Amino acid sequence: MTDVVFIVFAVCNFLSSISYIVPFIYLPDLGQVEVALDARQTAMLVLIIGISNTLIRIVIGAIADLRCVNRLTLFSANLVVCGLASTFVAHYNSFSLLAVYAVVFGIGIGKSFVHVRRLYTV
To answer: Within 10 A of 2 (CB to CB), how many other CB atoms are there?
Structure first.
């Protein structure tokens, strides 16, 4: 446990893993309470996360298999984009902004939690 890079990597993975489920739980509530969306629209937000997540898994799997791609950089950039999008979620005050966030988050979790993490730890 003297490798600092591995310790930082492990801590980041732990924090990202415990924050993975938060938008699934609180995005519908945010939509209903803060933005005054109906139940159908908030359900659509979760559906958007799922669809974008499913589609990006195939694409990122193909990209991560390329020899010229640095998987750790791909994972790190993904976490930064997802983190920044999640940081400003309180300022998204319309269905369209929340839908864009749902796409970004769905792509983000598809990239980091499925293919890339397994590929660069091997």
So the answer is: 5
| Closest-CA residue to 105 (of 76, 78, 75, 82) | 82
Per-residue burial over 4-40, b if 16 or more Cβ lie within 10 Å, else e, is eeeeebeeebeebeeeeeebeeebbebbeeebebeee
The domain in which residue 108 lies consists of: 4-121
Amino acid, res. 80: V
By the 8 A CB rule, do 88 and 98 touch? no
Q: What is the pLDDT of residues 51-109, one digit of tens each?
A: 998 888 888 778 878 888 887 777 777 778 888 888 899 899 999 999 999 999 888 87
Spatial separation of the C-alpha atoms in residues 12 and 76, rounded to whole Å? 10
Number of structural domains (the chain) is: 1
Q: Which of 6, 112, 121, 13 is nearest to 60 (CA)?
A: 112
What is the value of pTM for the model shown? 0.81
